[in-house]
Amino acid sequence: MDVLLVGGGHIGQKELNEMEDHSEIDFTGVVDSHPGVRTTLEGKYDIQIFRDIQSALAQSNANLVRIATPPHTHAELAKPALEDGRDVYIEKIMTTTVAEAKELLHLADENGCEIYVRRNALYTPIYSRGLERLDEIGDVRYVHWIEPTGSYDRWPDDKQEWLRKLPGGIISEHLPHALYLIRMFLGNEPDVTDVVHKGKELYVTMATDAGQQAAISFMGTNDTPMLMRVVGSEGTLLLNHDTMQISRERSVEMDSVLKRTLEANVNQFVEHVSHVAWLGKQRVAQQAGKRLGFDWAQEYQYTDHYRQLEDIANGAVSAGRIDITGEDGLKNVQLFESIWTATTEIPDSSRRRVDLE
């Protein structure tokens, strides 16, 4: 599969590096409008560089156009590719408005093209392992995504510039992950029921027609781990993104707080031991791979970029319980737009200490 890359920044260069030796995927050109980026690319890669997508499409035979640019540019860059009959693979979020997403889907249908949307978290081991453990907790009733945003102002100036063009800034850059992961673990499509936002804080509640509930909490702090709690009819799973660890939250019936605490700590210790054993298994496989002459570490590490591009090359349209297609991308955009049109500001009074005397 020949790929034309649009966007030679951090994500684009990461994919160029990861896919360099792939036998079935070949990047044949890179488009970037920034002269400094083009100069950097020319110094690092033996690849054709273009300043605009129109000239690249005219000279490239690539059958897939990979758009790795800021979200507000996705629609304008995908349109000419689809009109030229090329499949497109778009960085999340597919577009920033429902109208743009629908227009792209119409163009794809009209020209017999496919649209794929990046779903990198679906290829992260903790979430595939979490799906495998859903049977332990019965029917899923509630999913809560928790993410700290306190350190999200440490981005380079160029990224800060385009983040200001998104509603909610950096939150909108991370929100798509929360949306498609919640949808995947619920197994049903939710609707937004309530939204409050201020600065680096965003709190969203959602519900499905099946009676399930979901919540998203972007918290303006940097001392909270990124977590997803999945509550089922028979138990609860806690997925810690920072440590890549899954724990089964258990309650016990004992006649004292001391005994309950002891039992809870024992359960947590068992989960930790299981996680360490899992990591050890990966390490053993890594070392065995090196002895056999292949770089197992690279293939395992590059789960997000490497495996989704490989899936696209092999004709796959899903990852786990959710699709990576444009139609599914539209569902995420609909939730994204619903959140930012329904937003009410967190009142200042909610931050004040209340005197109960």
Question: Main traits of this protein?
Answer:
357 residues, alpha/beta, Rossmann fold, Dihydrodipicolinate Reductase, domain 2, 2 domains, 8-stranded mixed beta sheet, 16 strands
Summarize the structure.
With 357 residues, this protein is of the alpha/beta class.
Description:
Residues 294-302 and 350-357 have low confidence and may be disordered. The chain has an 8-stranded mixed sheet. The protein has a 6-stranded parallel sheet with strand order 3-2-1-4-5-6, with helices on both faces. A two-stranded antiparallel ribbon has the order 14-15. α4 links the parallel β4 (64-67) and β5 (87-90). The longest helix has 35 residues, at 257-291. It has 12 helices and 16 strands. Helices cover 41% and strands 23% of the residues. It folds into 2 domains: 2-117, NAD(P)-binding Rossmann-like Domain (Rossmann fold); 122-268 and 336-341, Dihydrodipicolinate Reductase, domain 2 (2-Layer Sandwich).
Report the uncertain regions.
294-302, 350-357
Summarize the amount of helix as a percent range: 40-55%
* C-alpha-based Rg, rounded: 22 Å
The number of helical elements comes to 12
Say what the CATH topology of the largest domain is.
Dihydrodipicolinate Reductase, domain 2
Side-by-side strand order of the widest sheet: 13-12-11-7-10-9-8-16
Q: Mind sketching the topology for me?
A:
Blueprint lengths: L1 E5 L3 H9 L7 E6 L3 H10 L3 E3 L2 H7 L4 E4 L6 H10 L3 E4 L7 H14 L3 E3 L7 H8 L7 E9 L8 H7 L6 H17 L3 E9 L2 E8 L4 E7 L7 E6 L2 E6 L4 E5 L7 H35 L4 H6 L3 H9 L4 E2 L2 E2 L2 H16 L2 E2 L12
Parallel strand pairs: 1-2, 1-4, 2-3, 4-5, 5-6, 7-10, 8-16
Antiparallel strand pairs: 7-11, 8-9, 9-10, 11-12, 12-13, 14-15
